[in-house]
Design a protein that fits this description.
CATH class of the largest domain: Alpha Beta
CATH architecture of the largest domain: 3-Layer(aba) Sandwich
CATH topology of the largest domain: Rossmann fold
Mean pLDDT: 95
CATH superfamily of the largest domain: Vaccinia Virus protein VP39
Shape: elongated
Distance between the termini: 47 Å
Largest sheet: 7 strands, mixed
Bound molecules: S-adenosylmethionine
Number of strands: 16
Oligomer: single chain
Strand content: 15-25%
Low-confidence stretches: none
Helix content: 25-40%
Amino acid sequence: MDNLKIVCPCLFGLESILAGEMKRLSFREVKCENGKVSFVGDLNDIARANINLRTAERVQIEVASFKALSFEDLFQGTLNAPWEDFIDKLEAFPVKGWSLNSKLHSVPDCQSIIKKAVVKRLESKYGISYFEETASKVQIQFSILKDEVSLLIDTSGAGLHKRGYRANSNDAPIKETLAAGILDLARVKGDSVLYDAMCGSGTFLAEGFLRAMKIAPGLRRSFAVEKNAFMLQSAFQNARNEALEKIDKSVSFEGFGFDIDKNAIQLTDKNLSKIAAKGRVKTKIQDIKDFVVPEKAIVVCNPPYGERLLDIKNAEEIYKTMGKVFEKRDGVNYYIISPHEDFESFFGRKATKKRKLYNGMIKCNLYMYF
Ligand SMILES: C[S@@+](CC[C@H](N)C(=O)[O-])C[C@H]1O[C@@H](n2cnc3c(N)ncnc32)[C@H](O)[C@@H]1O
């Protein structure tokens, strides 16, 4: 299994950042599409992708892709794919997926046709007519977009944003994968000093610490494919060893996290202690109005965005305060993510650069000031 097409969905706006990560891992034939990036690789690369990628949502193997205008097209296209390479006799193989702007729009019907075709294929390959499905799960995922079908096998299990340090979170945490993407744009490195002036559950600080120390985000968790029969047992062991060797604790990285809410600071401390980052990151309860601009720093911020009118007014007041305290200074760069269309007018300055990013389904802008 040398030339597998491996597809990694990501948040919209992060495609080029994810492609950069893949190239740094020496993955071949990296290609960006809307909301996903693919490469060509083998089973070792699947393990390396799951463990190392900071901005991918999951890692999937594309087993087949074809056009389908009828249920018969869908059945035949599925039947022709080499399912026996990935699904063992006793393994379970549930099917889920979605369809958008396509003739085949009934998801439950597509689901059952794909299941029937996979069963038929495996019946003829294994010479059995009953599948117990009692061993580990191989999740089949389909997508149909403008009549183009993609049949995938998920290898990650829980989404890759689940790093294992944020069991508890506050009301509006930023997704770990988005925080990692923003820190990539901010070029956080081993010698960076990182500030989050409204740290909530501490996601930016945790991701900044992992990035600066070159600690792979998936080092502390397991992945669905590790239990599957087709996976090379040595692949994850090797990938974990490789990732462990890359860790660099000699760097000078420091982080500072502030929040007005005592519970948020407690939560940040708890999450940071899970990745042994407490020694590098100092936290304190502090109102944004008391922020003092450091000598040299990367300042990131995910300020509140109210959903009700009163909350929106409060949020706008906070943006005004940020504009006052986030003074221009050589060596200090600010990265603020907000879905508020008029953020710059409340903040009081036009951003040096702006980039459209999605926090889940919410369209945001990253306002960059340097
Ligand atoms: C959207 S949340 C940040 C979430 C964070 N990025 C995370 O991943 O958990 C906004 C945070 O701003 C804090 N906050 C609100 N008003 C503040 C103020 N005046 N000064 C400092 N922090 C404030 C809230 O307590 C909340 O934790």
